[in-house]
Give the backbone structure.
Amino acid sequence: CDSYSVKASFTNVGSLSAGAPVKMAGVVIGSVQSVHADPVKLNAEVVLSIAKRYDAIPYDSAAAVFTSGLIGTQYVAIQPGGSPDALKNGDEMILTQSAMQLEDLIGKFLVNGGPKGGSESTPAPKPKSGSSGG
């Protein structure tokens, strides 16, 4: 077997599916083997298949679900940690970051009224210079 498997749990994987790439430093090092819901923990369990030649990934590395481009395909990115111990077949990655949903981002943007809190802007008061007649 030219790959090994590690597990990662996420509260939300978005539209991540089996076959999606696993990347480190932007380079594909493996693929998502499976994605399923854990009936006990009530989260998403993802199994990553990583090429054997990347056998020195630190045990405390983090896994995150990202999207290629604005509405592209989703993938798992591994951010290497600093542990002297490497991930081995069957290990579980503890540090994970769930998918950021586009809908959530749009909702936050709308609730906050845009980048400067646009809902709070009011027009400048009109100068009071006598009566305009009538």
